[in-house]
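USER: Write out one fold?

ASSISTANT:
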Amino acid sequence: MQHIVERELELRLVLSPERAIPVPARLSYLTDDPYAVHITFHIGSETPVHWTFARELLVDGVFRPCGHGDVRIWPTRVDDRGVICVALTSPDGNALLEMPSAAVAAWVERTLRVVPPGSESSLLGLDDALAELLTPLPADDLWLSDPWSSDEPQDGDV
């Protein structure tokens, strides 16, 4: 059974050191996709913007700078409030977002209670799927056996 952990937040899109605008967003975690977190940004366009990245990256980013490339996360303080900065890079542009630390940390903790770290693979059923793929079937005996028994003469043998 799938569990979903969601949280509506108001993030701040940093436009310059002096200016930021609010951006409504939704954090989502689905046990069907246990290694990932999803953020949906409602930016006033016809369709929202979706980003997906490793849950571990956000877990680490609550405590220390991490990530490289398209997603970088680090905790900091802005105007005496704790925030988690998320820098996103895509071919369409870059964005720097501030998320409230306490709300994000509480949401991350909820995801960790639903699926503890290290138990994600058990939800994917990979072990069962691999076992099923690697289990020999009766027809496999035909493929694995020698089609020419050494006891019988073969066609063309004298």
Q: What stands out?
A: The longest helix spans residues 101-114. The mean pLDDT is 86. DSSP finds five helices and eight strands in the chain. Strands lie at 4-16, 19-30, 36-41, 49-54, 66-68, 71-78, 81-90, 93-100.
